[in-house]
Structures are given as C-alpha cells and as structure tokens.
Amino acid sequence: MLSFLFLAVSVSGQKTPDDSLSIIIKKANQEIYNNPDNVIKTGKKLLKNEKDTKKLIRIYLLLSTAGFAKRDFDESLQYIYKARELAKKTK
Q1: What pTM was computed for the model?
Q2: 69, 76, 62: which is closest to 29 by C-alpha?
C-alpha cells in the first residue's frame, strides 16, 4: 500500500505541457478583470506556439473573455468566432 501511495504522488507530481497551459490559463483568468491587456498579450504569445486545436480553443476563449473585460466587444466576438470555427472542425 505504501508503494501505491508513492507511485500516486510521483505520477501526480509530473508536469506535462498541458499542465503548463492549464496553469497559465488559470493565472490569466485570475488576472483577467484587473489587467485584461496583459492577459491578451499572454494569450497572443500562446497562440503563436500552439498547434493543438483543443488548446487553441481554450486560448481563444481566454482572449474573448479578456476582450469582454475591456469592454471591447468586437474583439471579444472575433475571438469567440475563431473558437467556434475550430470547435466545428473537431467534430
């Protein structure tokens, strides 16, 4: 039983690239209403390096929310449409 707990702790402690993206998005969501410009800057950097469609959708949703927080509804809508188009392609 002790070895099982050790294995569970060591496996859960490993970081994957998806974990890194999740951490960045979680921190960005915490900052989104206080500093939406910084969140947009971070989101755009993430877009440049990401190829996975599901991750891109998450980033576009983050960018849309940041645009909404800035009251830039046109920008927010553009990002949500991009996320929607990618979501359609994944079906």
Answers
A1: 0.77
A2: 62
